[in-house]
Amino acid sequence: YRTSLENLARAGISVICYNFMPVLDWTRTDLAWRLPHGGTTMRFDLVDFAAFDIHILKRQGALGDYTPEIASEAERRHAQMDDFARKVLARSVNSGLPGSTEDTSLDGLAAQLSNYDRIDATTLRRHFVDFLAEVVPTAESLGLRLCCHPDDPPFPLLGLPRVMSTEADYRYILDAVDSPANGATLCTGSLGARPDNDLPGMIERMGPKIHFAHLRNVRKEAAGIPCSFHEDEHLAGDTDMVAVVAALLHEEARRKKEGRPDALIPMRPDHGQDILDDLTRGAQPGYPAIGRLKGLAELRGVEHAIRKSASFAAGRPRLPGPVQ
Fold this sequence. Notes:
This protein has helices at residues 2-10, 46-56, 68-80, 83-94, 106-114, 121-141, 167-176, 188-191, 199-206, 241-258, 289-308, 310-313; strands spanning 15-19, 30-34, 40-44, 145-149, 182-187, 210-215, 217-220, 229-232, 267-269.
């Protein structure tokens, strides 16, 4: 990994986004959920996921990870699925396996999960700190900025521990290995799937350590943790994207005043809905050209409006309220 960092620095890459999610990367149960406007988006349905976990994967102990209500509904829904629907669900869940170019069998997934049978959140967090202690000094010496992406979704799945789901998780890791090279990727879509994550507040409190911003929005379909959610339009959903962009711009202004060479925070319109001829292109789930360009245009419009606003010029940390 240290050699890879050296090679990246030699190639002129200075910001390295990574994650520390065991086995699975992002996880969704539907990669093309139909929307009222005719487009599609990605969705995580907790009942469908429980049906996969309990009745398709048949993971030992899975039943105890869900409320009786979710488990009962999962049993009913699984009974209503035909073989094709069950295969589609399994394929959707397996799409989050990192580096995967072909379907992973259920036995293969179970074997990977078994590697973590004796690893709880405390142990995984300790391993994470040990890893950072080895690689962060190299990154710092090369002028690189490492930024960990949050868990997606930000709660435990398939019995696996999750250690980057909340502000407290980030604070622990950032304090454990305190270095300009050890930072965060602020993914509003991942963190936004938990109602207890205050995203504008996280930017204000963690701002100096935010090295990368992934801006997208999700709409939670229930109030609990975990819950079902789907990926909404960039300016819709539950996250106040105007307040998020305003907080990021104020952090950039603070850095510029401080004289930091990395005053600008790289941003991308993370994910997008499939619209127009995205629907026939067969792009990687979450990365349609038109849907993401639409999101980028909207986010740039928000940025331009904030920069022109009196509140930004006056140095206030947030806009007075969400845009209606």
